[in-house]
């Protein structure tokens, strides 16, 4: 346990600053005046690139590497691109993943009370699984290293290593072990999602998955081809518990999955390696609604709760684990009470949602401390 945890905060672009500020407020409200987290802001992103020619300044990188955790709003703006057409504002997220080896991208997909799914006949609790996206290799490994030949041929290489597959598959089984299983049947199950029928690299992914699975005989396993998986996530979401997949497939499936539980605004994520943790919602910077005060902050708030969980476990700090629990609890209550932003067909502003979450957290804190006071007296 530490006296102080340094959190590097990067607001980023579009709605990034709005949702990031909301998450910081919520964490402060959950931990109260003795909050052991110190938030320090650093610049990065597309706006910063337009101003300075740099999307991810070296001092920001150093601060992120040295921090106890990293919190991000969202990055990137369409049209702010390098000569090759790729977005400059994504450097922050992508370089952190590679340079800090944040190999596990954990994306919980859960349908909350109060949120309507576009799928017919599903209610709160019927969808509750994790997409575990490999975050350090796969097709994304080619970022900045692909080739364009004579304006005629473009190549990006998909990379899959035994060590990379093994560690992400182990993580999937560990997540399944800690979980309550799939909502439909309570079975702890890991689904290996690939395209093993077509490409050698995915057949390799599957074979390493099968080898690792032998160490986890208490967990059910299955294989699903990614194209079929897109359909299953719509037709039988309650069947899934933990889904593990290559980087690009995980990226695509996590947006589809988010749509089934209310949209990108409801999709938190935790990107972790052995030494560092990086927390941001799975959504982009949504420049079309930036500055209007209507962005959905729940995804980033839940990502901040995941940060407290990760820090709490890492440092054996009960205060942080309790705060994470409180944030999740209060968030659920707010959603159930109809505190919904425009993307969820509600009318609440970012500020109303954030204020409400914070008020409830403060009330809970003062009632639990007065209870502790009574117990002492
Ligand atoms: C995500 C995002 C990122 C990705 C972008 C912002 C680089 O879409 O985290 O899913 O493509 O991985
Ligand atoms: Mn994505």
What's the structural blueprint in terms of helices and strands?
Blueprint: E1 5-12, H1 16-31, E2 37-41, H2 46-52, H3 58-66, E3 69-74, H4 91-99, E4 104-110, E5 128-134, E6 147-149, E7 153-155, H5 162-178, E8 189-194, H6 200-213, E9 220-225, H7 226-235, E10 242-245, H8 247-260, E11 270-272, E12 277-279, H9 298-315, H10 318-336, H11 350-376
Parallel strand pairs: 1-2, 1-3, 3-12, 5-10, 8-9, 8-10
Antiparallel strand pairs: 4-5, 4-11, 6-7, 11-12
Helix pairs in contact: 1-9, 1-10, 1-11, 5-6, 7-8, 9-10, 10-11
The chain binds 3-isopropylmalic acid (IPM) and manganese (II) ion.
3-isopropylmalic acid is lined by residues 76, 90, 93-94, 251, 282, 284.
Provide a descriptive summary of the structure in words.
With 377 residues, the chain is of the alpha/beta class. It contains 11 helices and 12 strands. The protein has a 10-stranded mixed sheet with strand order 2-1-3-12-11-4-5-10-8-9, with helices on both faces. α7 runs parallel beside α8. The protein is globular, with a radius of gyration of 21 Å. The two termini are 28 Å apart. Bound molecules: 3-isopropylmalic acid (IPM) and manganese (II) ion.
């Amino acid at each position: 346990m530490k006296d102080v945890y340094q959190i590097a905060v990067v607001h980023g672009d579009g709605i990034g600053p709005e949702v990031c500020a909301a998450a910081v407020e919520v964490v402060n409200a959950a931990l109260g005046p003795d909050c052991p987290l110190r938030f320090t802001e650093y610049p990065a992103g597309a706006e910063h690139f337009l101003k300075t020619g740099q999307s991810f300044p070296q001092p920001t990188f150093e601060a992120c590497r040295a921090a106890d955790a990293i919190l991000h709003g969202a990055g990137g703006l369409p049209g702010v691109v390098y000569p090759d057409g790729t977005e400059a504002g994504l450097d922050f997220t992508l370089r952190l993943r590679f340079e800090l080896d944040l190999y596990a991208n954990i994306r919980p997909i859960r349908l909350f009370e109060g949120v309507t799914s576009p799928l017919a006949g599903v209610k709160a609790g019927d969808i509750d699984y994790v997409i575990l996206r490999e975050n350090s290799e796969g097709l994304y490994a080619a970022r900045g290293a692909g080739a364009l030949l004579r304006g005629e041929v473009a190549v990006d290489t998909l990379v899959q290593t035994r060590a990379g597959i093994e560690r992400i598959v182990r993580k999937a089984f560990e997540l399944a072990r800690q979980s309550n299983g799939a909502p439909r049947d309570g079975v702890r199950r890991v689904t290996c999602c690939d395209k093993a029928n077509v490409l050698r690299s995915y057949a390799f992914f599957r074979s390493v998955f099968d080898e690792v699975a032998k160490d986890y005989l208490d967990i059910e396993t299955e294989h699903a081809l990614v194209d079929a998986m897109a359909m299953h996530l719509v037709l039988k979401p309650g069947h899934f518990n933990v889904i593990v997949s290559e980087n690009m497939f995980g990226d695509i499936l996590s947006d589809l999955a988010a749509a089934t539980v209310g949209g990108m605004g409801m999709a938190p994520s935790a990107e972790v390696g052995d030494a560092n943790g990086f927390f941001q919602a799975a959504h982009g910077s949504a420049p079309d609604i930036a500055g209007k005060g209507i962005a959905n902050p729940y995804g980033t708030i839940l990502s901040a709760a995941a940060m407290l969980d990760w820090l709490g476990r890492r440092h054996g700090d009960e205060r942080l684990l309790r705060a994470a629990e409180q944030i999740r609890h209060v968030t659920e209550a707010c959603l159930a009470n109809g505190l919904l932003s425009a993307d969820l067909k509600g009318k609440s502003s970012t500020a109303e949602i954030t204020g409400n979450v914070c008020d409830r957290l403060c009330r809970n804190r003062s009632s639990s401390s007065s209870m502790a006071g009574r117990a002492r007296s």
